[in-house]
Amino acid sequence: MYEPVIRMEDVTKVFLGGVLALDRVTLAVQPGEWLAVMGASGSGKSTLLNLIGCLDRPTAGRIAIDGVDLTRLTEAQLTELRREKVGLIFQQFHLVPYLTAVENVMLAQYFHSLADEAEAREALVRVGLVDRLHHLPSQLSGGEQQRVCIARALINQPKLLLADEPTGNLDEGNELIVMEILQRLHKDGHTIVMVTHDPHIGMLADRRIELDHGRIVPVHTHDLAGTASVSSVQGLESSRKGASEEEGPDRLGNVLRP
Amino acid sequence: MRSRFFFRLVQRSLANRMGKWLTAVLAVAMGASLVSASLTLALGMRAKMGQALRAYGANILLVPAVGQAGAPLFVTMAEDVLGRLEELGRRLPVVAYSPLVYAVAEIGPQRVVLVGTWPDAMRRVNPGSRVEGGWISDRDTVAEAMVGSSIARKLGLAVGAPLTLTVRDRTGTFRVVGILSTGGSEDEQVFLTLRAAQALAGRAGQLSLIQVSALASDRRVEDIARVLEAGLPGVTARTQFRLAMAEERLLDRLSLLLGLIAGLVLVASALGVAAAVATSVLERTRDIGLMKALGAGRALVGRLFLAEAGAIGLAGGLLGGAAGLLLAQAIARSVFGSAVPYTTLPALASVGSGICIASVASLIPVRRAASVEPGIALRGE
To answer: A111–B300: do the CB atoms touch at under 8 Å?
Structure first.
């Protein structure tokens, strides 16, 4: 048995004003595992992700990432741990608007160690953005921006990928492309924690947990009715009604190059 | 390599907010222009006054120490003092000096002041004087004389004319080689070499006065005079400002006024920069949060914003420095009727003050930027 990449024990988070966001959550994520965190808005999904991503501290309980206990770390040590171990993928992409695609990737390299333009370009080529290296975020589609965000998250080879609603702002065609990339990363052995409220997307993960008012509850099976067969992106596509034909498998084919 | 990407980030960020930074740059430029203008005026006008002083004549007079008996014209000091002065002068900004001996001489019925001096030193100490004919050829000649323009006119003396001088019972005949016009008392005097005058007046080895030209642009002339006085026994040093002191006082007041205004405008500039940086931090909270989420430490975020503020300060300082020089010229022309020389110090000071003001004014907003929580980037819109 491996040491879990993430171990949370009785983690509670109370925000100022007494809002209970997480209530005694215990969770372990194994290396190479793909975990989907599901639940309605305000259920504590993002709070959980922030805590795992070393962006916030729990009010009570213990969190260890790759064996390092976060509760004992200073702010600077938390920053360093995040830099070394965590890759972040955001629903809103969060690219720096005045930097080109390649510079946005280089930014993460720069904060980690050294900005290497050749390596950053290669990372963008791997997510199918060979023609978009020097475009500003405003010149990219949502899907392209999300792929820049993924390239940025992967550039420092983090142990842990955290994705907060990675397809929340994408049309179905781009959703397929992004999920395909995540599935590839999973196959390559990356540990992924993905927050989603979409049961179809959640079905692609190895394991799903559901949060309700800050507590882990049994996954609502009725949400997953008709999605039991989803185990691949192609399955996801067919499980959706009215999936866009033009942004289908052809487009995916371009992205799937190793 | 790391610093290259750092500058790329700063450059991109500045370019992205060019329009918004423009007001901050202008605010800095206003303050810096006044710093540059007041310094240019203060330094330039003082340097001009120093030059003017030298052009008008010597600015320090060494005279026999007071307390010795007799009327000023007849009190003398020993010529040995020149050796000490030569030695002291090497360590001070003394550009020239000329020893003088005075006597009252008669040209027929006309009484004139006879001055004996070194002709070469006299030329250096009085660069502004006009001469018709030439100067006395050397220190050792005993046959040549120069005549002040008023005396020459009164007595109808021309270059080449013979001149007979009598001091008490001694008489000598000289040839007029030049007519001197300074606009001052020299126009009423007759000049011989030091040696010739000492012999004629019966004062071998004695001096009445030493004129000293010190190259100093401000009140340092006083300090130099005190050093000379301390180093030369039996000698009193007097500074001689022939320029109206009123002009100096005007300059002082103008410098003070400009300095005060510059100070106030710099405070206003600082507030302008602080507001601009604070707005920038506020508008970019999400970007800052993102950078911190990607692993940027507080120090790095602070450095990024400080570098931007520094660049604004530099741009404002350069712009203000140039504007200040023009402003100084305009003021100098309208108040003093002449241009001031350009020097590097005001330009450096305005760039320096621009960078300082922008950086210091940014400290508080930059601190706020550095303490933005990384989690803020992960929260939804």
So the answer is: yes
Asked if A213 contacts A19 with a C-beta cutoff of 8 angstroms, the reply is no
What ipTM score was computed for the predicted complex, to two decimals? 0.84
- Chain B residues with CB under 8 Å of A111 CB are 291, 294-296, 300
- Is A112 close to B297, i.e. CB distance below 8 A? no
Are B224 and B62 contacting, i.e. CB atoms less than 8 angstroms apart?
no
Evaluate whether A53 touches B293 at the Cβ level (below 8 Å). Answer: yes
pLDDT in tens, chain B (381 residues): 678 899 999 999 999 888 888 989 999 999 999 889 888 888 877 666 655 555 555 678 888 886 554 445 567 788 888 888 888 888 888 877 888 898 999 998 889 999 998 888 777 766 667 889 988 988 888 899 999 998 999 889 999 999 999 998 899 999 999 999 876 678 889 999 999 999 999 888 888 888 887 776 556 777 888 888 888 888 888 776 544 455 566 677 777 887 888 889 889 889 988 998 899 888 888 889 899 999 999 999 999 999 999 999 999 999 999 999 999 888 888 876 667 777 888 889 999 999 999 999 999 999 988 888 887 655 643
Chain A CB contacts of B286 below 8 Å: 94
> Which residue of A56, A83, A91 is in closest CB contact with B295?
A83
Q: Rounded CA gap, A186 and A192, in Å?
A: 7
Q: Quick check: B293 and A92 CB within 8 A? A: no
8 Å CB contact of A107 and B2: no
Name the residue among B9, B293, B286, B298 with its Cα closest to residue A89: B293
